[in-house]
Amino acid sequence: MYAPRFAACVFILATAAACSSKQDANTSNFEEAVTAGLARGPSMCRTISFNWPNVAQDSEPDTPLMTALSKAGVLKAEPVSVTGWLGRRYPGHQYTPTDEGKKYITPDGTICYGKAKLVKILSWDPVVKVAGTSFTKVYFTYRIDGLPEWALRPDVQATFPNLASAVQGQEHARMAMPMALADGHWQGE
To answer: Which domain of life does the protein's organism represent (predicted)?
Structure first.
């Protein structure tokens, strides 16, 4: 009569002892921390303008990107004449976000193309303690949720190298997130 209860108690205690703490450096805790860090962190973005409409000479470095985004329907491009050095006029374009583009471009000129989501924890650096706080860096693979069709276009990727790397790196490229042990659990920085 007491033997089954005793065996059940021993099993429960052994199971509880095997459970890990939120402070342990392990895959489960890092999955939780990376997922939370990616959720609260920014989307995958790049600033393309500081104000709209954006008027630029056709010789400016971002012109190929702006042209590709125009062809993709994200921006509207209208030819204009731009005043340059000493009043000289140069060919250029005035760019404004289209209705489709407004879904991805913020008022401050940042274009976003999705949000990274954790696929798999690969590894982490040894934990170090600095001024009483534990730190490490966690490496993982990702996918991009909410990736728009225009981000898959070769002409856009050719002029937007970070976008191309991120899109092509899904499921296999390694991302890293610094971690700190704070408030009793691991948190992405």
So the answer is: Bacteria
pLDDT above 60 (res 69): yes
Cβ-contact 164, 175 below 8 angstroms: no
Residues 176 and 37: their CA atoms lie apart, in Å, by 11
Task: Give the pair of three-digit tokens for residue 143.
Answer: 């996918």
**Separation between Cα atoms, residue 159 and residue 133, nearest integer Å:** 42
Give residue 72's pLDDT: 97
**What is the mean pLDDT of the segment spanning 146-162?**
95
**pLDDT-derived band of residue 39, with 50, 70 and 90 as boundaries?**
very high
Same domain for 167 and 124: yes
How many domains would you assign to the chain? 2
Q: Is the peptide bond before 53 cis (omega within 30 degrees of 0)?
A: yes
Domain assignment of residue 94, yes or no:
yes
Residue 18 has pLDDT above 70, yes or no: no
- Give residue 83's domain range: 54-103
Euclidean distance between CA atoms 22 and 28, whole angstroms? 9
